[in-house]
UniProtKB/TrEMBL annotation:
It is a multi-pass membrane protein. It comes from Polaribacter reichenbachii. It is found in: Cell outer membrane. It comes from the Bacteria. Belongs to the TonB-dependent receptor family. It holds the Pfam family CarbopepD_reg_2. PROSITE patterns: TONB_DEPENDENT_REC_3. The keyword Transmembrane applies. This is TonB-dependent receptor. InterPro entries: Beta-barrel_TonB_sf, CarboxyPept-like_regulatory, Plug_dom, Plug_dom_sf, TonB-dep_rcpt-like.
Length: 904
């Protein structure tokens, strides 16, 4: 019957339109019911209207029309309502949601033919969303709204919404709001708290629309759950070595002194380690700490740590999720060899004022979110500050008990939704550290970041993002001599900054291709060091000339879904780096080591003159193949160039490490990485398992000559060696995501080896053979667990085991022209003792009632429960002619702490 009606409509369309254009109407309606308006229009014209009264029940309008056609008047009346209409001779047929199409009868390939399934369309349980438009070519429609308790009208947070048969999920936020993209036509939405489904709803999507769902109180059990919106992405995506940290889930993990730390959580995952407890920076798959690109809202952080690396410089209460790329790196990223840490601050609440406060023995933390324009823009501000120096006094070292340290950081972002196609976000960050390890020196360092991000939807197939950022890192030393006769007081300052512009476009022409391409430019500026005497002391001032470098890149990639099983992601990044003037560059004689004796000339270059250019072609290739629906294998290949390097002859990274640009004498570092792994999820994604192996080659990596002077050295290239390296390993991760007992176990077997061999003895280390790097730790095991006794009480544990890192020991002594000297072994031939540690925490939460003004959370933690005296470093001193070994330890005893958190 329905098909016959549509056929009749098709044959009469041409007659209808001709009649409708013949008459112009003038009318004035003030707070008039739509039903009365339609009756009036019937009287003014020769048309008869057919519709259901329930579609327009008691709705009113206030409109004025002058010489308008009937079609234009009806369009205006129903422009924001899901009502369509059709002219048939002297009749007008109204429909709700859908429109009647002349092509649906004859075009069997019509994508929207599901709209005309009579059983679906007439099903009383189906919720129809949106108003179908003939010219609408969208492949996805957006459904948004709120979830409420049917009895109390309370908004329901933390409810997972999934689409049956599709990999599409979302979650209601703290205000019960949801937003999800659905395919046109028939969909089944599932609403559930893990692990059970509480209800299903049938949805028929005609266009974008809003709908508020209500549930009875007995169908929803509110409890705090951790939801991953893409719970099986680790199996589906082609990217290898990708780790995502859900920041909202780290609050129960045992912490040092009650301070939640994103980077400490990262080091519990495979392939990410630190050189030692208290060392700033971390090592990813055998790479140095300077080979990690750390981004906060697309702006670089050069030193993301506080207090010698014991605490992270990132505030978790203002952070969203963190993506860590340690395998296949997307083409849009470059400039660092080992990894990318992509950290995004969360957008503030646009509906109401919220915030949280955390108080611990060492640090207090706060964050607030304030709507500026409701449902459009908000301001988020967060900060942390220390309020005690007792931690230094607790360290087992008499020389440190009179020391002091302080730090703070503050972050703010403003996010604004201009319209459906444009969003902007402005972020800023500042951190400051000051510490005095001795009574005569004050060290300080700071990070300053600002970024502007504009997301623009060009059309249905193209989305663009413009990022503009500036980052600056500074450190300084203020030294006040205690010698009144020989005063050598001074200040030393160092600074590096970069400014970057990145424009990226995502192009999705169809379901099989997702193309990303763009352009970026970055300007580096380095002040290598200024030494200034204080009070006219006899210190000779030093002012090293500034350095500038320009990095320009073009990139493109395509995620190509070849078939249901095979996904290919390939890309290319072309980077062009130029070292710029003004500068002085030393020219050395060929076939001789770089030294003052082989110096030929010092050549001067003018402002912005191109001194040296390096081009780096970088390839990105990764693939995923489904062995089964929930089992995949992945492989990847990528190579990267790095044009900026840290200079440090310390065993572990420190805040006073300096950065050096590639120039005429120092080449860019390079790496090539191959990865292969298998991934699977089981039991409805409750368990995740991955086993991945990798192999990396390094070229032009940096090391230093014995006794090298790196700070305030104008001829720094004479102290630097560049060689090769290799790293390989196997990483295993088993993770349980839900249930009373959840957590993960990760194990990594890895090696990181370097090789320095040259034509001259001073360029050779360990006879030119491969030797372990400072952070080579073959075995690394982490076990993180959380057990919930109830919805409010839980216990969490961490256990870590690592092979001791390499060290160089003295193996004898010898006499030379009278004095006695110590003879050392080959570099990094020995190892300090293995490291292991157990942490424990108890977590107690207030009740989870949504209508509470304040939610509370208590955490009691014990760091290093076993009191393990883990060595941080081993050093040697000559005492009365005897060389004695000493071991330094950061935390040799259990460290208990209690912290209190509240959220409002």
């Amino acid at each position: 019957m329905k098909s016959i009606l549509i056929l009749l409509l098709t044959f009469t369309l041409s007659i209808t339109y001709g009649q409708e254009k013949e008459q112009l109407i003038s009318a004035l309606y003030e707070n008039t019911k739509i039903e009365d308006v339609l009756n009036d229009l019937e009287k003014k014209t020769a048309f008869k209207f057919f519709y259901k009264n329930e579609w327009i029940d008691n709705e009113t309008i206030t409109k004025s029309y002058h010489n308008k056609s009937l079609k234009d008047i009806l369009k205006d009346i129903f422009t924001d309502k899901p009502i369509n209409f059709y002219f048939i001779e002297n009749k007008i047929i109204f429909t709700k949601n859908n429109y009647i199409r002349d092509d649906s009868l004859f075009n069997s390939s019509n994508d929207n033919k599901s709209f005309f399934d009579e059983n679906e369309f007439n099903d009383p349980d189906i919720i129809k969303i949106g108003k179908e438009s003939k010219n609408n070519k969208k492949s996805k429609f957006t459904l948004k709204g709120y979830l409420k308790d049917e009895n109390t009208n309370e908004l329901l947070k933390g409810i997972l919404i999934s689409v049956k048969g599709q990999n599409t999920n979302t979650q209601t936020n703290i205000k019960g709001y949801y937003e999800i993209e659905l395919k046109p036509g028939f969909n089944i939405l599932r609403f559930h708290t893990l692990p059970s489904i509480i209800e299903e709803k049938k949805i028929l999507m005609f266009n974008d629309g809003n709908f508020d769902f209500s549930f009875t109180n007995n169908s929803v059990e509110l409890e705090e759950v951790v939801i991953s919106a893409n719970s099986n992405q680790n199996v589906k995506e082609a990217v290898t070595g990708l780790v995502t940290i859900h920041v909202k889930n780290i609050k129960t993990i045992p912490t040092l002194l009650g301070v939640s730390d994103i980077f400490r959580v990262a080091t519990t995952l495979p392939g990410i380690t630190t050189a030692g407890e208290g060392a700033s920076g971390f090592n990813v798959r055998g790479g140095k700490a300077d080979q990690n690109l750390i981004l906060l809202d697309n702006s670089v952080i050069y030193n993301p740590s506080h207090f010698f690396g014991i605490f992270s410089g990132i505030n978790p209460s203002t952070s969203g999720n963190v993506d860590i790329f340690k395998g296949s790196m997307p083409a849009e990223y470059g400039g660092r060899l080992s990894s990318v840490f992509d950290i995004n601050t969360k957008n503030g609440n646009t509906t109401e004022f919220t915030g949280d406060i955390s108080v611990g023995p060492v640090m207090s933390n706060f964050s607030i979110e304030n709507p500026i324009v409701k449902n459009k823009s908000s301001l988020l501000v967060g900060g942390r500050i220390t309020h005690s120096n007792w931690l230094l006094k607790s360290i087992n070292n008499e020389n440190l008990k009179n020391s002091q340290a302080s730090f703070y950081d503050i972050i703010a972002n403003y996010s604004h939704k201009i319209n459906d196609n444009n969003n902007i976000k402005i972020s800023s960050y500042y951190s400051k550290d000051q510490y005095s390890i001795t009574s005569d020196s004050l060290y300080n360092y700071s990070n300053k970041l600002i970024s502007f991000n504009w997301q623009h939807k060009i059309n249905e197939y193209n989305k663009a993002k413009l990022s503009i950022s500036n980052s600056r890192y500074q450190f300084g030393i203020d030294y006040e001599s205690q010698n009144s006769i020989l005063d050598k007081s001074f200040t030393l300052n160092y600074e590096i900054s970069d400014s970057e512009l990145n424009y990226k476009i995502n192009y999705s022409p169809n379901k099989t291709h997702h193309i990303t391409y763009g352009i970026s430019g970055k300007l580096y500026a380095v002040t290598p060091g200024n030494l200034t005497p204080i009070n006219n002391t006899n210190v000779v001032p030093v002012n090293l000339p500034k350095e500038k470098g320009l990095l320009f890149a073009l990139y493109a990639s395509d995620k190509f879904e070849i078939n249901d099983k095979l996904l290919l992601n390939f890309g290319f990044r072309g980077s062009l780096y130029s070292f710029l003037g003004p500068a002085e560059q030393r020219i050395y004689e060929e076939n001789l080591p770089l030294s003052s004796s082989s110096l030929l000339e010092v050549k001067e270059y003018g402002k912005n003159e191109f001194i040296k250019n390096y081009f780096g072609p970088e390839y990105r290739l990764s693939l995923r193949y489904f062995l089964k629906e929930n089992v995949s294998i992945k492989a990847s290949f990528n190579n990267v160039y790095q044009y900026i390097h840290t200079l440090s002859n310390n065993t572990t990274p420190s805040p006073t490490d300096t950065w050096k640009l590639s120039d005429l004498n120092i080449k860019p570092q390079e790496s090539i990485q191959y990865s292969l792994g298998v991934y699977t999820n089981t039991l409805n994604n409750q368990y995740e398992f991955s086993l991945e192996g990798y192999y990396k080659n390094f070229d032009n990596i940096l090391d230093y000559k014995v006794g090298a002077k790196l700070l305030l050295n104008e001829a720094i290239e004479t102290e630097i060696l560049q060689g090769t390296g290799k790293a390989y390993g196997i990483e295993l991760l088993l993770k349980k995501t839900t249930g009373k007992l959840n957590g993960w176990v990760s194990y990594t077997y890895s090696r990181s080896l370097n090789k320095f061999f040259g034509e001259f003895n001073e360029e050779i280390i360990n006879s030119g053979e491969y030797f372990p790097s400072n952070f080579d730790k073959p075995h690394d095991l982490s076990l993180v667990t959380n057990f919930k006794f109830s919805k409010r009480l839980s216990i969490s544990t961490n256990f870590f085991y690592q092979t001791g890192r390499p060290v160089t020991y003295p193996v004898g002594n010898y006499l030379y022209n009278g004095p006695e000297y110590v003879l050392y072994s080959d570099r990094n031939k020995f190892r300090i003792d293995d490291y292991y540690r157990l942490d424990l925490s108890f977590n107690f939460e207030g009740n989870h009632k949504l209508n509470k003004a304040i939610h509370t959370f208590w955490n009691f933690s014990i760091y290093n429960v076993l009191g393990r005296n883990n060595p941080y470093s081993v050093f040697f001193q000559n005492i009365d002619g005897n060389v004695k070994a000493f071991q330094s330890t950061i935390f040799s005893q259990p460290v208990p702490t209690i912290s209190f958190n509240l959220k409002f």
